[in-house]
Design a protein that fits this description.
Layout lengths: L5 E4 L13 H8 L5 E5 L12 E8 L6 E12 L4 E7 L4 E4 L13 E6 L5 E10 L3 E11 L9 H4 L3 H18 L15 H10 L3 E3 L18 E7 L6
Parallel strand pairs: 10-11
Antiparallel strand pairs: 1-2, 2-3, 3-4, 4-5, 5-11, 6-7, 7-8, 8-9
């Protein structure tokens, strides 16, 4: 699938897509002091959907003028059910406890393995699922190339219907999996009303620390001592704004 992503400097850009972190909020979460770049598909015609949303958080280098990518913040949503998690990870390679029912063709077991690199002329992101029984049975990757822009570019037109395109492709692939009789997993909330609490407990047992459980509140969001990974869960609105 070919879609267009935006890489936005949150400190310099006059436009920040709605329902996203500011540079100040991202720095507070990641504990960094440098620039913050946002990778996402901007909303189009009132619709917001991005398979991958990342915040690249940099730390100033003491001995040179270049900044060092220290942490990333991942933002994962399951659109039909209106839930979202955010968590910090090491961009060079990291494992994060799977804490959200994203695909109806995967159970809740396993970890997300995340890897990316500092964006330049090229960009790459890899997400895989490390399952306790099936092993590394799923991998998704994003590769992108920087496009030269100018002040004359109409960004609304440039990203026209990109979120819709991503959504249609996702549901089309899901439909094909159904036709091939791939096992379907309904959302665990229908059988386990306390699945959120169980997921959060599992994440906390893996070194994650909730900001404010169930709210995603960003006040006092700096991780406490001994916390290995900042983490938040919250309900989100339907993507039509």
């Amino acid at each position: 699938m070919s879609v267009r992503y935006a890489l936005i400097d949150l400190d310099r850009s006059s436009y920040i897509p709605p329902n996203h972190l500011s540079a100040k909020e991202a720095r507070s979460i990641a504990g960094t002091k440098g620039p913050v770049l946002l990778l996402t598909i901007p909303p189009s015609v009132g619709y917001q959907r991005s398979p991958v949303t990342l915040y690249y958080c940099y730390e100033p280098h003491k001995e040179s003028s270049s900044d060092i990518l220290k942490y990333c913040i991942a933002e994962v949503s399951n659109t039909p059910w209106g839930e979202q998690v955010r968590f910090v990870f090491n961009p060079y390679s990291d494992l994060a406890a799977k804490s959200l029912h994203v695909s109806p063709f995967m159970d809740m077991l396993g970890d997300w393995k995340m890897k990316t690199r500092s964006p330049g002329n090229n960009l790459s992101v890899t997400v895989s699922v490390k399952h306790p029984v099936l092993g590394n049975y799923f991998t998704a990757s994003l590769t992108a190339q920087k496009v030269k822009s100018s002040s004359k570019v109409d960004y609304a037109l440039f990203f026209w219907l990109m979120p819709q395109k991503a959504a249609i492709y996702t549901y089309w692939q899901s439909f094909k999996l159904l036709l091939n009789n791939v096992q379907f997993y309904e959302h665990p909330k229908y059988k386990k009303p306390l699945y959120i609490e169980e997921s959060l407990k599992n994440a906390e047992g893996r070194g994650c620390c909730m900001a404010f459980p169930g709210t995603g509140d960003l006040q006092n969001s700096t991780p406490p001592n001994g916390c290995e990974r900042w983490y938040s869960w919250k309900k989100v609105k339907w993507p039509w704004a």
